[in-house]
Design brief:
Number of strands: 17
Structural class: mainly beta
Order of helices and strands: HHHHEEEEEEEEEEEEEEEEE
Largest sheet: 10 strands, antiparallel, barrel
Helix content: 10-25%
Radius of gyration: 24 Å
Number of helices: 4
């Protein structure tokens, strides 16, 4: 796997580690390949949605009209041990079997590692003969000592009118080593405590509500790698998510703490696109060895999250850091400049 691709977009490359096994998986048939891909990819898709739901908050206070700041934010989402493997039960598969005769065992997800390696086989029809295609199940990121999902992006916020600000985050579409990625998000935050009138000046806490939308897209074209015969071979990823949160923060000049409770919901669609030809023969229970746009893995996520963090302001410069407790917990840090 190309290391530049790995550094550019960790989620896409967590599944490109499996690309060399793609022909072997398709040899087990479309249903088996899709079922395995769902177990392998789902934790990475879920972690990606939770990851991009973070970083929206650095204070419950909103900017005054036409005041703004620009931030550079980094996120790191942590993956629990239970999300590094999934149970593969061959009774749920049409063709895939363990070489050691086991019926079921825990195997690596995109975040895990098979130690020792796991050998499986599937049957194909080659003319009048039935043959076995034997291969190792793909490893995950733990095999290269990566146990979290990091991201980084630019974010800005602007005061619109009394008690309301808009937030925008952006990572322009980047293309490198056949990988294209991009991030866009927009949020709206309203500070309820600004409507307390004179009480606002003596109440040392800001309380606000926020809603934010985030879209992440990625594409990896590996046709030229010639790993498997075919045309226009790509992995395509599209994630859409919403974050709803109520939050509070202190209102001091230099150092403040903040916290909030929110809800995250989103979908992730991972598509295997293009034409693929299984060279070993026709997969058992299939009628052809050529597949076009063979399958899509859709993941849906919804869950509660809680945030605790702190911010330091020094004139036009600020620094914030927080921890988010959720199904996939996350740490976020940011540097911001503005007025």
């Amino acid at each position: 796997m190309n290391k530049n691709i790995f550094l550019l977009f960790l989620f896409i490359t967590s599944v490109t580690t499996a690309q060399e096994n793609l022909e072997d998986l398709l040899a087990a048939g479309i249903q088996d390949a899709q079922r395995f891909a769902r177990g392998y990819i789902t934790p990475a898709a879920e972690a990606g949605i939770y990851n991009m739901s973070n970083g929206w908050m650095q204070s419950a206070e909103v900017k005054k009209p036409l005041r703004f700041d620009v931030s550079i934010i980094g996120n790191a989402t942590f993956v629990s041990e239970e999300n590094r493997s999934f149970l593969l039960n061959t009774n749920d598969y049409n063709n895939l079997q363990f070489r050691d005769g086991s019926t079921s065992k825990e195997v690596a997800t995109a975040f895990g590692e098979n130690d020792p390696e796991v050998l499986v086989f599937a049957e194909v029809q080659n003319g009048p003969l039935t043959e076995e295609v034997e291969f190792l199940l793909p490893q995950g990121l733990a095999s290269v000592n990566v146990r979290m999902l990091p991201t980084a992006f630019l974010q800005a916020r602007l005061g619109l009118f009394k008690a309301t600000e808009i937030k925008v985050r952006f990572l322009p579409n980047i293309e490198r080593e056949d990988v294209k990625t991009g991030v866009f998000g927009v949020g709206l935050q309203h500070e309820f405590t600004q409507w307390l009138g004179a009480g606002e000046t003596v109440f040392p806490v800001a309380i606000s509500g926020m809603v934010a939308y985030n879209r992440l897209n990625g594409n990896y074209d590996f046709t030229d790698d010639e790993i498997i015969e075919g045309e226009n071979q790509q992995f395509d990823l599209l994630q859409n998510s919403w974050t709803f949160q109520v939050q509070a923060s202190t209102k001091m000049k230099v150092f403040n703490v903040y916290g909030g409770v929110g809800y995250v919901t989103g979908t992730s669609d991972f598509e295997v696109l293009g034409t693929y030809r299984v060279r070993a023969g026709i997969p058992f229970l299939e009628t052809t060895n050529e597949f076009t746009d063979p399958f899509t893995v859709r993941t849906k996520v919804s869950g509660v999250r809680a945030t605790i963090g702190a911010e330091v302001r020094l004139g036009f410069f600020g620094l914030h850091a927080d921890y988010n407790l959720a199904e996939y917990s996350n740490a976020s840090v940011g540097i911001h400049f503005g007025i």
